[in-house]
Amino acid sequence: MTMLEEVVNMADQLTLAEKAQLMEHLSIAMRHELEVEAFRRMPWHEFIDRTSGSLADDPIERPSQLPFEEREPLE
């Protein structure tokens, strides 16, 4: 018996509410996987165009330089 057949058999034993929860879970999981796959197949320049500016509200900032460590001089 394949894993799919096992899942189908187990799903048949669920209540209506549990089946609705399962469908919601599968819908969210599939949507996420399809989005990821679409980004993987997208040409790199299109990916840049779609994601550029995505951190505009939370810019990356470089912290101030830490002081240099005192070391023994070279001989």
Structure description:
There is one protein chain. The chain is 59% helix and 0% strand. The chain contains three helices and no strands. The longest helix has 26 residues.
The tally of helices reads 3
What is the ordering of alpha helices and beta strands? HHH
Major sheet size, sense and barrel closure: none
From the helix content, strand content and strand pairing, which structural class follows? mainly alpha
Radius of gyration: 26 Å
Helix coverage percent: 55-70%
Shape: elongated
Query: Strand tally, please?
Result: 0
Task: List segments where confidence is low: pLDDT < 50 over at least 5 consecutive residues.
Answer: none
Mean pLDDT: 91
Query: What distance separates the N and C termini?
Result: 75 Å
Strand content range: under 5%
